Amino acid sequence: MNPTGAGLGLAVAVGLLTAVAAMVVRQSMRAAAVGVGTAVCGAAGVAAGVCALSGTTFSLDLPQLLPLSGVVVTVDALGGLFLAVTGGVAVAAGIYGIGYARHSARLVQAVFPLFVVAMLLVVCAASAGTLLMCWELMALSSLLLVVADHRSRPEVAAAGRWYAVMTHLGLMAILAGLLVLAAHASGDSFAALRAAGPHLPPAVATVVFLATVAGFGSKAGIVPLHAWLPRAHPEAPSHVSALMSAAMVNLGVYGIVRVGFDLLGGGPRWWWAVVLGLGAVSAVYGILQAAMSTDLKRLLGYSTTENMGLVLVGVGAAGMFAADGNRVLAGLALAAALLHVVNHAAFKTVLFLSAGSVLHGTGTRDLDDLGGLRQSMPATTAAFGLGALAASALPPGTAFVSEWLLLQALIHGLPASGVLTAIAMPLAVAAVALTAGLAVATFVKAFGVGFLARPRSVRAENAAESPASMVIGMGVAGLGCVGLALLPTLVLPALGRVAGVAGPAQADAVTIRLVGVAGSLSPLLLAIALVAAIVLVLAVPRAVAARRAARLWDCGAGPLSARMEYTATSFAEPLQRVFDDVLAPETDVDVTHTRESSYLVEAVEYRRRVPDRIERRLYQPVLALVAAWGSAGRRLATGSVHRYLGYGFYTVCGLLILLVVTR
Amino acid sequence: MLRLWHKIRRTGRVAEPAPARPAPHDRAFPGSVQVRHVDAGSCNGCEVEISSAFGPVHDAERYGARLVASPRHADVLLVTGPVTRNMAEPLRRTYDAVPGPKLVVAVGDCARDCGVFAGAYGVAGAVRDVIPVDVEIAGCPPRPEAITEALRKLTGR
């Protein structure tokens, strides 16, 4: 057994042991045991992933473990990347959970490491059966974690229902796609599927691709299958949200890359144009909804949709370039997409963990009630600020590097051949640029309104910093963010190799082209220049001129109150007005007049809601139809036993008649 | 839109020709001054004349004077009216909020010596009783030409 296999085995063993330990250890020790176990499991996953990335693949065949199909496990470079990302998130979330999940129920504590193990196994699965089993294990364990607090808050149960239905519909789609593929192959192992994939009839291949894209896309939170994401992520405990948003949604991207590039071997250009289109729509729509959200965790949930959209723009562009035979650009686009997966995992972990810390310290996640946390929660504020900087695609942040690479790939794709490419690439560039701009506005809002200025409520005023383990958890993820932001060159060559192994790309495309054609950029130098500029700006005036302390300008009138501050709603209002036609916000003004005269106003009530329009247009009719079917079906089932016996009798008669007629 | 263009074409230029340049103030801001207007209790007569001075006919902006929306952006305070008791403290704070070097212009007779409101129970005093004044403009209300001339002394144009 090589180091990759040893790491994976250790991760699975520690994860399972931790789950058992959570059931038997007494309550005071439980959170610590689960946290440490999960962190060790994650660290082993990272080690296995890094070994796989550096070329040590691992394969294991256990035909007896699962009836009919057996279990086949392979860790290759692509799987290794996602293994390392998932493990890294698990380390931070595990340490954080020691303080955060101290009062969670025993079952929830036990399921947490199982969820991590399931995610680690999904990317190692090397047969359709194994993949589906691990996928379902992951879905069920995450569902249990989402509904952890269902007793105390009724909206958790509703979120859980949405999540359960959506994730199982996704599983159905993946199952259908992989079964159709396996039916045309000699077995269900990926090796057999890989051999059969490129020779499928085009119609069958298209069915397989579209079904798996729908299934994996729903897990990645791609519009219009994103409805579960802004519901489940806010309601789940925050360290679970971090795992779901930073690690689990990535597996949707993994699935699309695995099936599309690896098993089906590319495919026609329009497949990838569909992926690119879905990605672009998700990116813009997700960040627009995030910009409108006033719930901190809902905002982060929509931002996940946005970032997965950006990743799929890269994946789609890579597919289109590959279909055109342009392997260099395909490698660049795919490496940019994978780098964004890594970056997103890092900053979304920080953001969700610090949002959880805010929830822990104040008891609310409504931005309109927060503010002024800078003094009372300095570590959390620093962590969220770091995450917000990383998420808003500005130079010393992580997302900047990957989005810059993505834009380079798309812009260099402009002169590529084909009408479809020539139309799609400029539109994709515009979508990525618009998304980056809106992301800045969104995270300025989240950080500025949530953490700076003055507290807007008593709860925010009485906030207290979180325990040390939570701060350390945020710090681990924050270190990852800083490292990726300053030294992406450490990760990029490995990603280039992954793009070369997984896709039809030139293996060393990234390292060559970035320096040669696209123009080079050193994030480290940029950061140093920025720090130098800040120091200059702060130091020079101090040296040159005398300073005078002046009263804060309050229009001369008197003390400023928290009610004069920008709220999250008012900050987003201009944006909402610009995108009025897309968002279709609902406003409601109720004016109450005094009893004496209709000219005198007693109270004015103003309500504004930005509903998810896609959800309303797409899901409500389907839900109404299902409800109508259900009530129509109720007429058949009246509760009368005679009637049910009659149904059975007539069905048997009908079958017999059918048999007689067809013989 | 088209009507607006027609109106612009029909009206033509209405600005008065510039009078001779007055002698600049010895602490002038050569070229441009940013002006913050403070109403310390005026009857709004002076405000009408100030807006006329910045209107198309006298057009004080062509001499480099510009009205701004915050004392933080200003070089010069343009104070009108006798300083009422309610406005004395805000006026002092506004003066503190202006970054130095700064000048204060008292506009109108009320700002210079409380005018007809002298001795009224709600009046704290003239502007110079509250903050140091550098330039005074006489008149009740002063003509826009006088306001423009005082501002030109400050811009030196």
Structural description of this entry:
The complex is a heterodimer of chains A (663) and B (157). Chain A is mainly alpha-helical and 663 residues long. Chain A has a domain at 613-662. Chain A is built from 26 helices and 4 strands. Chain A has helices at residues 3-24, 27-53, 77-100, 106-122, 128-146, 154-183, 190-196, 202-220, 229-235, 238-263, 269-292, 296-323, 327-362, 373-376, 378-391, 398-412, 419-451, 458-461, 468-486, 492-502, 509-516, 523-544, 568-578, 580-583, 613-633, 641-662, and strands at 58-62, 71-75, 586-593, 601-609. Chain A has a two-stranded antiparallel sheet with strand order 1-2. In chain A, strand 1 (58-62) and strand 2 form a beta hairpin. In chain A, helix 1 runs antiparallel to helix 4, helix 9 packs antiparallel against helix 10 (238-263) and helix 10 (238-263) runs antiparallel to helix 13. Chain B has 157 residues and is an alpha/beta fold. Chain B has one domain (35-155): Rossmann fold (3-Layer(aba) Sandwich), CATH 3.40.50.12280. Helices cover 34% and strands 18% of the residues of chain B. Chain B contains 6 helices and 7 strands. In chain B, helix 2 (45-53) crosses helix 6 (144-155). The longest helix of chain B is centred in the middle third of the chain and has 13 residues, at 85-97.
